[in-house]
Amino acid sequence: MELLKIVRRRSFQSEVVYTALNIGLAVAVLLVIRATESPWPAIGLVFLSKWRVLAVRPRYWFVNIQANLVDYIVSISVVILLYTSYLSLASSSQKTFLLGFLTLAYIAWLLFLKPRSKRIYVAAQAGVALFAGFAALFTFTYALPASIVVIITWLIGYATARHILSTYDETHILFLSLLWGVVLAEIGWLAYHWTVAYTPLGIESIMFPRVALSVFCIGFIMHRAYDSYYHHQRIRGNDILLPIIFTASIIIILPLLLDLLGANVTVGI
């Protein structure tokens, strides 16, 4: 009994330390951005917090980095979104809301979603990385050449596909991940030249790229189609009908609604 009490006490203490460190990381990222007005120190802090990825023999580095690509994408995306929100021309109250919301969302990622290993949570992790990665990237693509945008979108596609496929008994993970990366790279190239942005919650100085929503919806349909094929050796209509209707509604109806509200600032995907 005494041994069980000691184990429980240590487990509780470990959970408290783990929670405190992750909350501290999210808050520290925000404070660093506010203090330096630059995303690079905060990105450096994020990489420093992932030191365990390289705390193994060098031959395992590449494997560990691949396994943690989704976490890197989400963390760097949060930094970029925090940075662009902080430097925006929004009012003080709007900035406080945006920075607080993004920080809480990052804490939720670190504490509740990232540690999960069930397939449904892994798919959710990939979805968050896909959405956040495109949202962050296309907030500053004006400052990047098209080639860099294509490479980054390809990497996001490769990382998210590999993340999901690793939970299945799939023998062609590399090929399918590369293929999804190419699809997203094509979408990224198109969105670089022709895209739509919205102003969330009426904050005119903050632009939200529609392509992030579009690729998230496409990714959701592709995942449901693959899951149906994996379990039934064919894509059953009943398995993808509702996802298609749902995502089509988001892609078509939501933009029309935002356009009526005057949020549409350009034309494209």
List the helices and strands and how they pair.
Layout: H1 2-36, H2 39-49, H3 61-67, H4 69-86, H5 92-113, H6 119-137, H7 146-165, H8 173-193, E1 197-198, E2 208-209, H9 210-232, H10 237-260
Antiparallel strand pairs: 1-2
In short:
74% of the residues lie in helices and 1% in strands. It is an all-alpha fold. Helix 1 packs antiparallel against helix 5 (92-113) and helix 2 runs antiparallel to helix 4 (69-86).
Beta-strand share of residues: under 5%
Gap between N and C termini, in Å? 62 Å
Strand order of the largest sheet: 1-2
Number-wise, the strands total 2
The succession of helices and strands, N to C, reads HHHHHHHHEEHH
Give the CA-based shape.
globular
Please outline the major beta sheet: 2 strands, antiparallel
- Compute the CA-based radius of gyration: 20 Å
Q: How helix-rich are the residues, as a percent range?
A: over 70%
- Into how many domains do the coordinates divide? 2
Oligomer state of the chains in this structure = single chain
Mean of all residue-level pLDDT scores: 85
Structural class: mainly alpha
* Number of helical elements: 10
Residue runs with pLDDT of under 50 for 5 or more positions: 1-7, 263-268
What does it look like?
The termini are far apart. The chain has 10 helices and 2 strands. A two-stranded antiparallel ribbon has the order 1-2. The chain has 2 domains: 1-115, no CATH class; 117-269, no CATH class. Helix 1 (2-36) packs antiparallel against helix 5. The chain is mainly alpha-helical.
